[in-house]
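User: Let's play a game. I give you a shape written as C-alpha cells, and you guess the letters that built it. Ready? Here's round one.
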C-alpha cells in the first residue's frame, strides 16, 4: 500500500508509455511534475521559454518514434506551448504537451491563469483532453501517447488541473496501463504495388522523392536498396536528406529544378506535394506528371495531383514489398538513358556555378564560402539543425547529411526560431553525436537565450551564427529610425554564449572562420561561432521565385 500523488501518477504513466525526455518551464501548478519526472527516470531539461521547449518535444518524437513531452504552466505558458503543437501538426511529428491548469473547482470564477486550454490546443492536435480523476490518469496518458503515434503521427494535448496534480490515491486502486506497442506497420494493397511498379517501368524520365516520412519510419535500408537496384534518380526533401547519403551517385539534388520540371513519373516516399514541392503543379512540374505516392495517411493521397498508384501504409514495410516485387521481376532504369544524360549535365553546370562561389575568399564573405567551411569540418554522422532564410535555403544544397534523421530545419511550417530547441533535443537523443546548429542571426534571436540551457546541461552543441545584420539582407549601419528588417550591425552573439560559460568566437575572415570552426567542433562543450558576412550576400540566381504561384 503506497499513497501516490498526482505528480507521480502522471510521470510514472508517461515513463510506462516510453516517454523518456521532457522539456519545459516550471511554475504553478507543474513544479512537482518536473521533480517527479526526474525521480521516475525521465530526463528533464528546463528551458527559458515554452516555445523552444515545445519545438524540442516535437523533434524528439521525430527522432525516436516515441513522443517527446513538453511541460508548461497554465494560461500564458500553455499558449506559448501551442507553438510546438502547430509545428508538430504541420510536420506530422508525435509529441505530448502537458499543460498545468487551475483547480477545476475554480472554473468560471476567474481563477489564476484560467484559460480555454483544451479548446485552444484542439485545431493542432489529434487529441485534446483533460483527465477527470486521478485514478484514470494512466488511461488518458496511454491513449494520448498511442494517438500521437498511430496512423499519421501528430501532437496531443493533456490538460492537468491542479486538483488532479495535488490529489492522492492508493497505488492498489490504480489501473496502470501496459506500454502501448509501437505503431502497427501496415502493408500496401498488392494491386497498388503492381500498379506502382508498372508506372515506374513505363517511365522515361522517372524521379524518386524521399521525404521525412521515410526517415521517420526508418526505411533507410529499404529505400536505398530500392534506389540502387533500380538505378532510379532520387531527390531528398529538406529533412529527407541522409535517408540515402547526399553524396550518393544516384542523387540528383544539384539538378532539382530541372528534375521536378521534366520528370514524367514521380514516386513520393513519405513526402507531400505541398508548397515545398511546389504543389506538383506547373510551372515547377510537368503538367502531365504521373504520381506514385506512398504515405501512411490515406487522406493525403491525391493532394494537388491525382495519384496513379496509392501505396497506403508504413514506408519501411511497403518498400520491402516493392523490393520483393523487383527481386521477382527486375526493374532497371538505364544509366545510358537520355534522362540521366540531361540530369548529369545539369548537375555539372550547377556545380561549376556553386563551386566558384564556395571558393571565393573575398571579405566580407558570402553564404557559400561560409557554408562550405561548415560542411568540410562537420563530422559525417553529425546532426545538423538549420534555419534562417538564405542560411537554411543555401544550406540545403551545401551542407550534406550522410545518415538518416540527422537534419532538422524549419520544415513544413517554415517555422523560424526552432533551431535551438531542435539542437537541444538532438543532443539529448544523441549524447554521443556532434550537433551543429547553423543559424541566421535573425533565426538565432528567437530563442538565443537557450544557449544557457545548452551550457547548464553541458551539451556539446556547436552553434554557428551566419550574421548579415538582419532578416533577409541587413545593412552596415542603422538608419534612424532603424529599418524594419535590420538588427544591430556586428552584434556579438558569441558573447551571449560566453556569458553562460561556453566558448564564443567571432570571425570576419576565412582564416579566422576556419580556425575557430575547427576549434569549436572539437570542443566537448557548447560553443558558438559568430561569422560576419556581407549584409548584401544572397543566393545564386534562381530559375523560379521561391513561392512560385
Ligand atoms: P517532407 O517535408 O520531407 O516532404 P512531409 O512532411 O511533407 O515530408 O510528408 C511526410 C509524409 O510522411 C506525411 O504525409 C506523413 O503522413 C507521412 N508519413 C509519416 N509517417 C509515415 C510512415 N511511417 N510511413 C509512410 N509515410 C509516413
Ligand atoms: Mg540574417
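Assistant: Ready! My guess for every position:
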Amino acid at each position: 500500500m503506497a499513497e501516490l500523488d498526482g505528480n507521480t501518477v502522471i510521470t510514472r504513466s508517461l515513463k510506462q508509455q516510453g516517454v523518456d525526455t521532457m522539456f519545459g518551464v516550471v511554475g504553478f501548478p507543474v513544479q512537482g511534475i518536473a521533480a517527479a519526472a526526474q525521480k521516475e527516470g525521465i530526463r528533464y531539461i528546463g528551458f527559458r521559454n515554452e516555445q523552444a521547449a515545445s519545438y524540442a518535444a516535437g523533434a524528439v518524437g521525430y527522432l525516436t518514434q516515441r513522443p517527446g513531452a513538453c511541460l508548461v504552466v497554465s494560461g500564458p505558458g500553455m499558449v506559448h506551448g501551442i507553438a510546438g503543437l502547430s509545428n508538430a501538426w504541420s510536420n506530422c511529428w508525435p509529441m505530448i504537451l502537458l499543460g498545468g491548469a487551475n483547480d477545476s473547482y475554480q472554473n468560471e470564477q476567474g481563477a489564476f491563469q484560467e484559460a480555454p486550454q483544451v479548446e485552444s490546443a484542439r485545431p493542432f492536435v489529434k487529441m485534446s483532453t483533460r483527465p477527470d480523476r486521478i485514478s484514470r490518469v494512466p488511461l488518458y496518458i496511454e491513449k494520448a501517447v498511442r494517438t500521437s503515434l498511430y496512423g499519421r503521427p501528430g501532437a496531443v494535448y493533456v490538460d492537468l488541473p491542479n486538483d488532479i496534480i495535488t490529489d492522492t490515491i492508493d497505488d492498489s486502486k490504480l489501473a496502470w496501463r501496459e506500454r502501448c506497442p509501437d505503431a502497427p506497420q501496415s502493408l500496401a494493397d498488392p494491386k497498388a504495388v503492381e500498379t506502382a511498379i508498372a508506372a515506374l517501368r513505363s517511365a522515361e524520365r522517372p524521379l524518386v522523392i524521399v521525404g521525412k516520412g521515410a526517415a521517420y519510419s526508418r526505411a533507410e535500408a529499404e529505400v536505398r536498396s530500392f534506389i540502387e537496384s533500380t538505378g532510379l534518380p532520387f531527390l531528398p526533401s529538406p529533412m529527407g536528406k541522409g535517408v540515402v547519403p547526399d553524396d550518393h551517385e544516384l542523387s540528383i539534388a544539384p539538378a532539382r529544378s530541372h528534375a521536378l520540371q521534366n520528370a514524367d513519373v514521380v514516386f513520393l516516399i513519405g513526402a507531400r506535394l505541398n508548397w515545398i514541392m511546389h504543389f506538383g503543379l506547373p510551372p515547377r512540374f510537368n503538367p502531365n506528371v504521373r504520381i506514385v505516392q506512398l504515405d501512411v495517411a490515406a487522406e493525403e493521397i491525391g493532394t494537388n495531383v491525382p495519384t496513379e498508384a496509392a501505396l497506403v501504409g508504413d514506408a519501411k514495410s511497403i518498400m520491402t514489398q516493392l523490393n520483393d516485387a523487383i527481386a521477382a521481376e527486375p526493374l532497371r532504369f538505364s544509366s545510358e538513358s537520355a534522362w540521366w544524360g540531361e540530369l548529369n549535365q545539369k548537375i555539372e553546370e550547377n556545380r561549376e556555378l556553386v563551386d566558384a562561389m564556395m571558393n571565393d575568399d573575398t571579405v566580407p564573405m558570402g553564404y557559400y564560402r561560409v557554408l562550405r567551411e561548415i560542411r568540410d569540418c562537420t563530422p559525417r554522422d553529425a546532426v545538423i539543425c538549420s534555419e534562417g532564410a538564405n542560411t537554411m535555403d543555401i544550406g540545403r544544397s551545401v551542407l550534406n547529411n550522410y545518415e538518416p534523421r540527422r537534419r532538422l530545419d524549419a520544415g513544413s511550417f517554415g517555422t523560424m526560431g526552432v533551431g535551438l530547441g531542435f539542437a537541444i533535443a538532438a543532443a539529448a537523443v544523441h549524447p554521443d553525436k556532434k550537433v551543429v546548429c547553423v543559424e541566421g542571426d535573425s533565426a538565432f534571436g528567437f530563442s538565443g537565450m537557450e544557449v544557457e540551457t545548452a551550457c547548464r546541461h553541458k551539451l556539446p552543441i556547436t552553434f554557428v551564427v551566419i550574421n548579415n545584420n538582419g532578416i533577409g539582407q541587413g545593412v552596415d549601419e542603422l538608419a534612424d529610425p532603424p529599418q524594419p528588417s535590420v538588427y544591430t550591425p556586428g552584434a556579438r552573439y558569441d558573447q551571449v554564449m560566453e556569458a553562460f560559460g561556453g566558448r564564443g568566437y567571432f570571425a570576419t575572415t576565412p582564416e579566422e572562420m576556419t580556425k575557430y570552426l575547427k576549434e569549436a567542433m572539437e570542443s566537448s562543450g557548447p560553443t558558438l561561432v559568430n561569422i560576419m558576412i556581407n549584409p548584401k550576400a544572397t543566393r545564386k540566381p534562381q530559375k523560379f521565385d521561391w513561392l512560385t504561384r
